[in-house]
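Um, can you check?
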Amino acid sequence: MVNDPDLDVDTAEKYAGVMSRFYGHFNERGTFEVNPMKLAMDNYDFGDSSKDYKREITIPQMREFIQQIDNPITLVVIMLLIKTGIRVGELCNIDMRDVHIDDPRVKDLFPPLRPEIADQPDSIYIEAHTNMQAGQVTNGERRVASNKRKRATIIPIDDELKKVLVFWLAIRPEPQNHPGNPFVTRLIGHVRTQVGDRMSNGRVHTIVTNATEERGWWDSDNSKAMNVSPHYFRHFFTTYMRDRTNDDVFVQFIRGDKGEEAMDDYTHNWGDKVRTTYNKHIYKLLR
C-alpha cells in the first residue's frame, strides 16, 4: 500500500488500520496467533507529522497499569522491558545462563551462569549484536531475533523485577526444543508453536498491545506515536532515567549504546557506578 503512487500516506495508514481490525477479530477467535498488521503499523513510519511525539504517561499512571496486570506472561514481559529498557529481540534472546538471581528458591533452576555475571548477583546479561544475530548459532541454538545494542551490557535487577522473575520461574514451562534454554517461554502453544517455546518478537508484540489496548493506549486508528507498543517502554525508561539520574552516559551504558571513553568507568566500576545509581533512581511500579 505504501508504495502505491495513487494512494496517499493517510489513506494507506487508514487501510492498514482496517486490516488490523480484521486480523484482530480472528486473533480473538484463536484463528491467528499474531496480528501482522498491528506489528507492521507499529514498526512502519507512515510519515505522521507528529512522529517525534510520544504519548505522555506519568509514573503513577504506569504504576496503575502495571498493578492491574493479572496475566503472568504479560507481567514478566512488560516488567523486563520497562525496568531495563531492552528491546523486544533482546528479551527473546535471554537465556537462563544470562540471568543471575540471588534467591535460594530458584538457585537450582539455573545452569552454569555466564562468567560475566557469576559474581554479579541480581543482574541480567544482554549480548551485543555482534554475537547475537538472526540466523547465528549462539549457546547451541540458531537465533530467530537479533540484538541491536552496540555493546554487551550487564543490567541490575531491582527488588521489584526480582520479585516478578522469581514468581515467573515458579511457573515457567521448560523448553523442549531449544538448546539455548530461553528464560521467557510460551505459556500456551498454537498451530506452529508449543508450550515452552522461545518467545518471538511477534508474540511479545501481541502480548503487550493486547494489554495496552485494554488500557486505551493502543488503537488501530491512532497514529504510531500515540500507541504504546513494546518499544514505548524503552522510550519510557530512557526518558525517566535520564531525568532522575541527570546522567546521559549512565543511561547510554544501560541501553548498550555505542560507547565513549566515559563508559569505560562504568564497566570497571560496575558495582559502585551502575548498580548503586540504578537502584537509587529506578522508578517503583509495584507499590
Summary: Residues 58-281 form a domain with the hpI Integrase; Chain A fold (CATH 1.10.443.10). The two ends are 45 Å apart (CA to CA). The chain has one domain: 58-281.
